[in-house]
Amino acid sequence: MGVIVPLSILLPIFFAILKWRYLTAEAKIILWYLLVSAVINFVATIIGKFFHMNNLPLVHILTVLEIIILSAFYKKLLSKKAKPIFYVLLPLVFALLCIANAIFLQSIFTYCSYTRSIAAIIIMIFAINYFVRHFFVLLRRIYAFYLFQFYNCSK
């Protein structure tokens, strides 16, 4: 399991690279996220297993890169409905927070639980924002459909 699970990320990367020109802009951003995660995981495994060194500084780097890439993804996904300054400013503020956390609270050689928790909350807020926006769009379409059906049936 220690080999199969980390290598499972190669399958979507392989197919995404094969179908690169057919990918949407959002899917290309997710591909970059998968590539960054795979490279950092690979380097962390090499550092930990072969050099027997602490690889937790890579988790600090991955945390910042996750928010930057996923902010770009949600900015692109919600480009017509969202305020783009929010998706540009948030990763910058989060990166500064991560630097402050590494300097003052948690060393880069310990797990960055504070910033990982904040990153998870930010990603959840992005996802909830997306689903709420699309839920109301879907609700309006259903309402319009049934209103149209009711109007046609009443003739």
Explain this structure.
It is a single chain. The chain is mainly α. The protein has one domain (4-119). Helix content is 79%, strand content 0%. It has helices at residues 4-7, 10-18, 25-49, 56-77, 84-105, 113-153. Helix 3 packs antiparallel against helix 4 (56-77), helix 4 (56-77) runs antiparallel to helix 5 and helix 4 packs parallel to helix 6. The relative contact order is 0.08.
Measured as a percent range, the helix fraction is over 70%
Question: How do the helices and strands follow one another from N- to C-terminus?
Answer: HHHHHH
Low-confidence stretches: none
Please tell me the total number of domains.
1
Sheet having the most strands: none
| General shape | globular
The chain-level structural class is mainly alpha
DSSP helix count? 6
Distance between the termini: 64 Å
Output the keywords:
mainly alpha
Q: What's the SSE blueprint?
A:
Elements lengths: L3 H4 L2 H9 L6 H25 L6 H22 L6 H22 L7 H41 L2
Can I get a quick summary?
This protein has 155 residues and is mainly α. The chain has six helices and no strands.
